[in-house]
């Protein structure tokens, strides 16, 4: 395949290397996956890309890279047209000379028709335009003749360059002080976006309904009155402690005496003394001889007949009352 253009390294560690561009897309950088691999240490793995579209060449600089064309730094993440020949500076060391094959580059011209017969050309154009106006179209004969080849090319290409107006072949600063820019656009992107939006609409609706259901369920399960919940917990704890008072006929154990005295203090409204007595019982539950694994009855198991499990019930009830 004949080369569409050629890159020549004119400065830097790779000076003198040549790279013929035979494909429509070429990547340049230090990475081994690039078509043109350079060795300068200040270059990125992917320093730049050169693409051929509409019979012209354009250059692309990824983010965090520096590419200068004929002394003008091009913006990153944008495509910029290249002239037929240009000096491209990559990083601080490497300079590359870009030379496009004249046969591979389309240069806009505004001259007379190729056959030199101006009148016949006008007549032919007028005849074609009149025919197309009768059918509701004003396309020129050249557009009509090349419709099929352009449609085939559009199917083969992934994307096409869109510009506001035909750019010149030289890289020049615009009125805003920036280089001319290009944008990649998929011809069917709006349709894909619309189709994707329609497909996502039911998903969004289901998500909103599910969230609403979960919120409603949470409102039903969460007690809107924390004070009432705490009151129920306190009442349950006192009911548990009541089971540890012992029988009136038998001699009470020391912890039972403390629990009974705490009940008296509670009935008299002395909350401070009540809690002090509960803490003494809690210390008895946590004493070394009680928590000893060899003590199978613990502190209260002998009276309740439930072994060490009754200690855990009493401890949980006391901690609930002390936390209020």
Automatic annotation (TrEMBL):
Region (Disordered): 107-159, 171-199
SUPFAM superfamilies in UniProt: SMAD/FHA domain (SSF49879)
Amino acid composition bias (Basic and acidic residues), ranges on this chain: 188-197
InterPro entries referenced in this protein's UniProt entry, alphabetically: SMAD_FHA_dom_sf (IPR008984)
Protein name: FHA domain-containing protein
Species annotation: Maioricimonas rarisocia
Organism phylogeny: Bacteria, Pseudomonadati, Planctomycetota, Planctomycetia, Planctomycetales
